[in-house]
Fold this protein.
Amino acid sequence: EMQLVESGGGLVQPGGSLRLSCAASGFIFSSYRMDWVRQVPGKELVWVAHVSPDGSTTYYADSVKGRFTIFRDNAKNAVYLQVNSLRAEDTAVYYCTNFDYWGPGTLVTVSS
Amino acid sequence: DVVMTQSPLSLPVTLGQPASISCRSSQSLVSSDGNTYLYWYHQRPGQSPRLLIHRVSKRDSGVPDRFSGSGSGIDFTLKINRVEAEDVGVYYCMQLTHWPPYTFGQGTKLEIK
């Protein structure tokens, strides 16, 4: 069974950093693109970042470009999102997904 | 960026009755490979999204056949034949043809009358 499990969220002050992790299992991880999508509770889904199956290509939403970095380790079946220079508007649940399946999400709260 | 517009945003439905959600894109979603990458997701309260339909009309594994997708070009529809209690939540359309960025509709909240 395909499974994705995020971790690493939490409460962080404005300007702070976190590293979100997503552990994958149940599918050939190295064959799938992986993405992060976020959602402010009660609001719509917003795409954040993409990494190609081999990790060589990445794309970012304009709102996070230069502050967030997506990368993956195919040997560990994991994808990561390094989030720096956090702002209040980055507060959201962050989902890891290959668009066939989504993890349960990890909540990032940016507040002083 | 491709803008995805859903309607209605709120959909009260009686159990056992049909429901229909529309999704319109700001440009054609036909890809250069001939496929149309329009997906539908269902998100129950407190849960992550679940894939229902991919490429306009293909039901994902385990999705009940009361769900169906149709459409082409810029106009797409998700239909539920007979709404059941477990169908409550928010439905999102999403396009994967013109990216980055991938873009979602605003969501349609289905509730039982």
About this structure: DSSP finds no helices and ten strands in chain A.
